[in-house]
Amino acid sequence: MQSRRRLLACLRFLAAAPGGERHLSSTAAGSARAADGRLFNKLLVANRGEIAVRVMRTAKRLGIPTVAIYSEADAAAVHARYANEAVCVGPAASTASYLNIPAILAAMKQTGADAVHPGYGFLSENASFVEAVEGAGATFVGPPTYAVEKMGDKVESKKFAAAAQVNTIPGWAGVTENADHALTVAKDIGFPVMIKASAGGGGKGMRVAWSEKELREGYELCTQEAASAFGDSRMLIEKFIEQPRHIEIQVLGDKHGNVVYFPERECSIQRRNQKVIEEAPSPLVTPEMRRAMGEQAVALCKAVGYHSAGTVEFLANPQRQFYFLEMNTRLQVEHPITEMITGQDLVEHMLRVAAGQPLTVTQDQLLHCSGWAMECRVYAEDPARGFLPSIGRLQHYREPRGPSVRCDSGVQEGSEISMHYDPLISKLVTHGVDRQSALAGMRRALDSYVIRGVRHNATLLRSVLDVPQFVEGDLSTAFLAQHYPTPASSAPNRLPLSSQQADELLAMAAMLWVGKQRRLSSGGDVAQVQAETQLVLTMDEQQVPVTVRPAEARMVGAAATTTTSAAAATPPGGGGQALEVQLPHRIMYVRDCGTGNAQLVRAEVDGQAAVLQVLEAGPRQYALQHCGAQRVVQVDGVLAAQLARHMPVPHVEDFSKVIRSPMPGTLVSVTVKQGQRVAPGDEVAVVEAMKMRNVLRAEVDGVVGAVEAEAGAVVAADQVIVRFS
Ligand SMILES: *[C@@H]1O[C@H](CO)[C@@H](O)[C@H](O)[C@H]1NC(C)=O
Ligand SMILES: *[C@@H]1O[C@H](CO)[C@@H](O)[C@H](O)[C@H]1NC(C)=O
Predict the structure, then answer these.
(1) Which GO terms describe its molecular function (predicted)?
(2) What is the pLDDT of residues 241-257, one digit of tens each?
(3) pTM over the 0.90 mark
(4) Last residue of a domain, one of 141, 159, 178
């Protein structure tokens, strides 16, 4: 019965993707607030993008009408159209719209909304917003003001944690006064140390320092970042735990003093302290460790009188010691993986708790979770340019589907990724009976995820899934920095292909070319492409001689040149001709199974399903993506390949001669002057975009020839800031 309910809850999520949602009625009966037994009359969601859509999906299922707020830039956004009503709350800048408390209160009044869900980010952890909502007579779907205030302050929350007997990291239990004081503290606890903004979150205002020099530099940058992002530049210093793993406990409390914990999530794959891949449960955690972490998390919640959903974050070392990091008093980005393994809808629980109902799950129920779930955060950003946002229109966009795939997004084909907001495209979640099957599902899902028009990190995410340490569950928050140390190493065209994957890619490229020849000659001489074709494929500057022949030639005999035998090799269910591709050291059998769209090719390679992405198709050249790696494959007849060797090599710009702005933003400072000598790694300029400060550094020794932009200027992507002579 229990597992059946869990399964049903899971299925409801899967059925309720935006665009294809069904209105399923809720099973549990609740204490009525609204006249007809609904929990609330109307729910306003004070957020945008995927989380707004996700919250509304549950509200709709529970029969609660929804109100969206949107900025002028988001008038056509999916979340605004998904709601029953939508109200514009101001111009594009989030300070003028999604953070504009008076405008949001006015939208509540205008629509008669009696409850507000804040999502995550924006006003979700803002105590004044909670007070304003409640002051206006509505219900805030989240924790009480007191808990938001106490846990929102890193110093206060650490004191609370220590008092509630939660393990804490050695460090300075207060705010540092200035860089000198920070240095004294750092020397006291010993390097490496972590510098963190007291009001921080999302990796902003946070840096590790391994030396005095790094401490001073990092302190300066963090203070500035924190001041601009949070209007609060207070800093903390604590011991930095090496090879740390980020493990967190989802908690849920009601207004009657009951608190339960869920099985942990591990979020160790991070870039600059931003989570990238999460999974539940964690490969590290034992049942004893889970219970210890869970009980500490519950103790902390009880100490601050917590209700609603929240997350207690810990750092753990490989010896399974764990330390309190912080508590997030909101629904987390990565909450879906917890929902997938427990079958619980956290947003539904938040709404019920907010309406005053007691918890409808027991601790015992939550510890019997099923299977494994994994989440990848797909961002519109450019890993090859230091992970800066990539803005533009989604020209082609197709989300993966499947029985165990959940894709939470707030975009669709044609949507604009704007520079005003977080560049998250979607959260891709897969579920499986165990870690290996969730992982295999994630590989398939990422392989068939079509995103064109913006640069994104899905290729890198896919590449991570093949790294042996990741496969073994040997994770740490330093994983990405260790495996992809430079921007170049994470560029899609430099991501590695195993020799098996490279062979598959070549065989499928040959298949595409042969398929095209057949279409070109269709109605004409089919026999021509039925015969043996000799090709030379060029990839990664290697020329590979390849022979392609119809697979039935080998199976039915050399004379298989009639359309009848070609049809015989095409299994029912459609798809192309089966081909035998002879590579220098092996033979592969491939068949194009077709998808009906030009961006994606489904194929069968040696009997296994494979997905190939076609980024560009020229007359003799393909830009292809396989297992996250992008490669250009040139297809030539034997003679053409010999000639190509004598072609001139195209000129490539020498990037060591200029410093360009990697993205649109504001030039905060230029550190160098004309005539100044710089060494590799020296700071040249600082560009701020999306509230992140990015230090641009010299790559080689040089002398500044000209400074072409001034501090304060708005700079475009690729605009030259400094030229070396
Ligand atoms: C809450 O949000 C308002 C509006 O953005 C902002 O002025 C205020 O500083 C925020 N307060 C906290 C505690 O974050
Ligand atoms: C994906 O984007 C996020 C957000 O910018 C970033 O932190 C992360 O590192 C990117 N992905 C990978 C695999 O690095």
Answers:
(1) ATP binding; metal ion binding; propionyl-CoA carboxylase activity
(2) 888 999 999 999 999 99
(3) no
(4) 141
